[in-house]
Amino acid sequence: MSGDHLEILVTARQAYPRLEALFLSAQSHIRLGFRLFDPRTRLLSEDARKIGDTWSDLLLHTINRGVPVDLTVSDFDPVVANRMHRQSWQFIAIATALNEVADEGAAKLTARCVLHPASGGIAPRLLFALKTRKNLRQIADEANDTVDPQIRFHQMPGLYRMLDCKDGRVCLRRAAIPQLNPVTLHHKLAVIDEAVTYIGGLDLNNRRIDDPEHEQAAQQTWHDLQLISHDPGLAKDAAEYLRRLPDVIDRKGQMPAPKSMFRTTISRRRARNYLRLAPQPVSQSLLRDHLAWIAEAQHFIYLETQYFRDRRIVAALLRAARANPRLKLVLLLPAAPDDVAFHERPGLDGRFGEYLQARAIRRLKHHFGDRVCIVSPVQPRRPDQRDIDNNRATLANAPIVYVHSKVAIFDTRAAIVSSANLNGRSMKWDAEAGVTMEDPADVAALTKTVFDLWLGDDASYDPEGAFDRWAQLARANAARPPEARKGFVVPYDVEPAEELGMPVPGAPADMM
């Protein structure tokens, strides 16, 4: 972004007020693309709260000022992810209804829920039919247990071909074999007036509201990072991405090559598909930049991610470790994925994900040896009645801090912030958006922000000395009682993932 003004926002307490301010100052147009965007999310800034309590109020205020808003949220597989499918359509219903109560002459709020059209071929559909039919029956039973099953039925438009509602009861259509729609829109992106870009890993809902101190129950923590860029070139590329994406993923258009440092993962439905579950890749520029900068790094790589599972990223790191004996790596992960840390019985997908991550970490340790430091953040206190009673929600006798951010730093030369995790799904399947930074001032600012937060006064920004600071602090914290620790980091413990993890023969690793 070469010197343009860049804001680095850590957690929703920093990011949401700035997004609210961008809405309040917008003049011509706002374009939004999120995995989750809940209009019921409470407003945080003093200026925004003057006009209402929730994002519904801010959206209404914006279109009443004459500024049109275009919102796209991701839809989800209505059988496998039924709760999220219903939730997305609820978001759209709330947003669309604002047009009905807007002032006369107000601008329009356009809201759409987009299901990525890539679907599994007939072979995987039949392979999983017993499971998906069972899910479908359960969805029908749950609908019939509600006060008004017909209302629940109409909240699930993705199931109209598979379910029916007769005489007030929801039932399965005969011989319905559910589709498999494994791909989602995972970006978190806003473009204001075609000039300002809000980009990173943070969706919009109340669950994600946390601050950099992370002083709340383990299951309520949420660490994330978002950027605001005033680079007009980046804004133009991001806006074009949001405009064209629905057509591109449906094979109805092409995505122009970006002229800025805007980077993406894009896939589309296959023209013919009988055997595959995976979509067809279109853009893998986020993967490409990660691989390129891993190969270029001379002294130090820092990776902060929700998931570490992608075999291409792992292989690139192993090649770099063999080629450069000076290279050191710090990897920051949550102590456990959210579907493991905060749930009593992880599903098969959670166990498969843990298997893939444990395998990746074993390979890192084997090839890097003492040149890799893998850490997780925890709160500087002991668990209490606020925290969920789950072993994986604690680490080193302290409640965990859940990490959702996606940051990569390579020496002092480059950094990547995006919506993409270091797993196969983000690198090849889902729609993702991010930015690669090569301006030294931007890289330095990001490094300082991230390192200061996790390490406190013990932070070091020198690529040749940073690794030792991270490793020493993590080891020292592990030996101290929680209340005496400095910063947040302790060594990541891979053993629980190894114990829980389970391979799933035939399941594509990129799905996780």
UniProtKB/TrEMBL annotation:
The keyword Cell membrane does not apply. It comes from the Bacteria. One of its GO terms (cellular component) is extracellular region. GO terms for molecular function: phosphatidyltransferase activity. Gene3D superfamilies: Endonuclease Chain A. The keyword Secreted applies. Keywords: Secreted. SMART domains: PLDc (SM00155). It is found in: Secreted. Could be a virulence factor. Residues 181-208, 404-426 form the PLD phosphodiesterase domain. GO terms for biological process: cardiolipin biosynthetic process. It holds the Pfam family PLDc_2. This is Phospholipase D. InterPro entries: PLD-like_dom, PLipase_D/transphosphatidylase.
